[in-house]
Amino acid sequence: TLEETEQLNELSKLLTAKEFQTRMRGVVLLLDYCKSSPQLISTNIVQIFKVFVLRLQDCNKKVKEKALEVLALMIPVFGGALHPVLVSLAAAVTENLNSKHVEIYTA
């Protein structure tokens, strides 16, 4: 629907913004959508994760940490729906296992 398209466009804009605070808002908005509109997320999982994976590799450690926390909450909700994006997720998460920042490594 038009509303869903607008929601996805807004989410994409926030997740790809230059300012880290705006990217952080995008990660939080994704979590909100996961809770309020799980069908929207699962239907558009590939499109959403193309930009969300970038936040798992973000240069700002706060954004990266929040994205990892959100991902941990998303996995039980979407389980099998994540199958099309597993390779990119695994690569992004694996990179964070070598992090020198305890918060990122823990997340």
UniProtKB/TrEMBL annotation:
Residues that span the membrane, as ranges: 70-93
Tree of life domain: Eukaryota
InterPro entries: ARM-like, ARM-type_fold
Keywords: Membrane, Transmembrane, Transmembrane helix
Signal sequence, start to end: none
Keyword DNA-binding attached: no
UniProt cross-references to Gene3D superfamilies, sorted A to Z: Leucine-rich Repeat Variant
Name of the featured protein: TGRM2 protein
Gene of this entry: Togaram2_1
